[in-house]
Automatic annotation (TrEMBL):
This is Ribosomal RNA methyltransferase FtsJ domain-containing protein. It comes from Candidatus Desulfovibrio intestinipullorum. It comes from the Bacteria. PANTHER family: RIBOSOMAL RNA LARGE SUBUNIT METHYLTRANSFERASE M, RIBOSOMAL RNA METHYLTRANSFERASE FTSJ DOMAIN-CONTAINING PROTEIN. Residues 156-213 form the Ribosomal RNA methyltransferase FtsJ domain. It holds the Pfam family FtsJ.
Length: 310
């Protein structure tokens, strides 16, 4: 067993274990379902990890009650990570039920992310627990679940923005100017308009009719790549959820950053069957950047940028 302090536990997004294993490479120590034990490096959380257990430790247990007492002796809030292939889910669930209740209510957009420490644990064997009192995400397994709006947005892509704004702790303020490239049918445009921002959207296809009628939305038919920074002047936010090659998105982003005309940006980096780790590193190397895999991202990552001021 690796010694405490020498490794971390990274939880892969559902259905995306492969990209995480590729990213970690030779650092991998062991894999248990979606939980990947890897050598600690002190660097940032892997891009393809949904959450990371920061200080995992091995805890021998003699019973369900003993496990609950040992966890509760460290802190109040714990949530189990279940592994269907382990055959230990029933025992793990009984330990969870013996611990203080942790609310798992659906989040309402606009609510701040929880701030209370959240620990995570799993059973490695029936009498050995792997647990971490601190994790990189305040949400169970790093997954954010919202009370959804199934009536107004013309698709579920709006959940990406809800989650991104919650995770990054930043969203457009009323009156700020947002440009969205490749906006149709308008799920992201709807979110931005609901924030009170002024939205200029661009796509070869029209927005959904009820989105196009929103008072603070202006839509133009055309390619998202056709708009250049010199055409619009200073903006507060640039958004893109366009389906395009990551190399092309990176070139577009650099064009806007070099022009020094945008304060913030949030874009989806979409991959096909293979992800280019060196290209992801180029996005991450841009000063002011953060990259996360959101709960509702599929084979894609979300890139957030905030202008660095001297």
């Amino acid at each position: 067993m690796p010694k405490p302090g020498s490794f971390c536990v990274h939880i892969a997004a559902r259905g995306l274990l492969g990209p995480l294993l590729e990213e970690l490479g030779e650092r991998i120590i062991a894999v248990r379902g979606r939980a990947v034990l890897a050598t600690a490096t002190g660097s940032a959380q892997p891009f393809w990890a949904q959450t990371t257990w920061l200080n995992p430790q091995w805890i021998p247990i003699s019973s369900i009650g003993d496990a609950a007492r040992k966890l509760a002796g460290q802190q109040r809030n714990w949530l189990a990570h279940l592994d269907n292939a382990s055959g230990l889910n029933r025992r793990t669930t009984l330990i969870q039920e013996a611990l203080p209740h942790v609310s798992a209510r659906l989040l309402t957009f606009g609510d701040a992310a929880p701030t209370a420490p959240l620990g995570a644990f799993l059973l490695w064997t029936p009498d050995l627990m792997l647990a971490s009192a601190s994790t990189s995400s305040p949400f169970a397994d790093g997954e954010v679940h919202f009370a959804e709006n199934r009536d107004e947005p013309p698709g579920r892509a709006y959940l990406k923005l809800w989650e991104a704004f919650t995770i990054f702790g930043c969203r457009p303020a009323p009156g700020e100017l947002c440009i969205e490239l490749g906006a149709a049918p308008g799920s992201w445009t709807w979110v931005l308009a609901q924030c009170g921002a002024r939205v200029f959207s661009l796509d070869k296809a029209p927005l959904a009719e009820h989105i196009a009628k929103l008072q603070n939305v202006e839509h133009c038919l055309g390619s998202g790549f056709a708009l250049t920074p010199d055409c619009v002047g200073r903006i507060d936010w640039l958004f893109s959820d366009m389906i395009c090659y990551p190399q092309r998105l990176l070139a577009l982003i650099r064009q806007w950053i070099d022009a020094k005309t945008m304060r913030r940006a949030l874009c989806t980096i979409k991959f096909q069957s293979q992800q280019d780790h060196s290209l992801i590193a180029e996005f991450a190397a841009i000063p002011g950047s953060q990259i996360r895999h959101l709960s509702c991202n599929k084979h894609e990552l979300t890139w957030f940028y905030q202008e660095c001021r001297p």
